[in-house]
Structures are given as structure tokens and as C-alpha cells.
């Protein structure tokens, strides 16, 4: 009976050890994945900041006015060219 109990405890100990090893391995894999995702997030945040800065530069009123005049030949209408439509 004691021999059976000793074998049962040995088996439980081995199974528990395998479980611990598997849990640690999974923890390491998840930590590596987390680190990769954090790095990717940081890179995306940097790119997003650059794009916001570029968008702000292109959307400046002075820049839009410059492009409208140079490329599209647009200008402000003269006083005689303005028509007011009333309902």
C-alpha cells in the first residue's frame, strides 16, 4: 500500500513539474509576443505623429492659398463679381 502511495505521489510530482515547465514556456512565449507588440505600437505611434505633422503642414491656410493661386489660378473675387442670393 505504501509502495502504491509512493508511486502515486511520484506521478503527481512529475505531472506537476511538467505543468510548471509548460506554464513557464507559455509565459515566455507570451512575453516575447507582448514585447513585439509594444515595439510595433511604439513605431505606429511615431508614424502617426509624423503623419499628423505632415497633415497640419499641408492644411495650413497659407499653404492652401498658395497652391490655389499657383496651380489652379484661383483668386479672390472682385466686389462686382460677388452675387448675394437671398431666400
From TrEMBL:
Instruction: Alphabetically list the UniProt keywords.
Output: Cell cycle, Cell division, Cell inner membrane, Cell membrane, Membrane, Transmembrane, Transmembrane helix
Taxonomic superkingdom:
Bacteria
Q: How does it sit in the membrane?
A: Single-pass type II membrane protein
Where is it chiefly localized?
membrane
Which GO biological-process labels does this protein carry? cell division
UniProt keyword annotation of Glycoprotein present? no
Where does this one sit in the cell? Cell inner membrane; Cell membrane
Is Secreted one of the keywords UniProt gives this record? no
Signal peptide span? none
Q: Which InterPro entries match?
A: Cell_div_FtsL
Name any one Pfam family assigned in the record: FtsL
Say which family it is in.
Answer: Belongs to the FtsL family.
Known function: Essential cell division protein. May link together the upstream cell division proteins, which are predominantly cytoplasmic, with the downstream cell division proteins, which are predominantly periplasmic.
Q: Which NCBIfam families match?
A: ftsL_broad
Quaternary structure, from the entry: Part of a complex composed of FtsB, FtsL and FtsQ.
HAMAP family the UniProt entry points to: FtsL
Q: Tell me the PANTHER family matching this sequence.
A: CELL DIVISION PROTEIN FTSL (PTHR37479:SF1)
The name on file for this protein is: Cell division protein FtsL
Say which species the protein is native to: Luteimonas colneyensis
Name of the gene encoding the protein in the UniProt record:
ftsL
Amino acid at each position: 500500500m505504501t509502495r502504491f502511495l509512493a508511486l502515486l505521489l511520484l506521478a503527481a510530482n512529475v505531472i506537476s513539474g511538467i505543468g510548471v515547465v509548460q506554464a513557464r514556456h507559455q509565459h515566455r512565449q507570451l512575453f516575447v509576443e507582448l514585447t513585439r507588440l509594444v515595439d510595433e505600437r511604439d513605431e505606429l505611434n511615431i508614424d502617426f505623429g509624423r503623419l499628423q505633422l505632415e497633415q497640419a503642414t499641408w492644411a495650413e491656410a497659407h499653404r492652401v492659398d498658395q497652391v490655389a493661386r499657383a496651380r489652379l489660378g484661383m483668386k479672390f473675387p472682385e466686389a462686382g463679381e460677388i452675387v448675394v442670393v437671398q431666400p
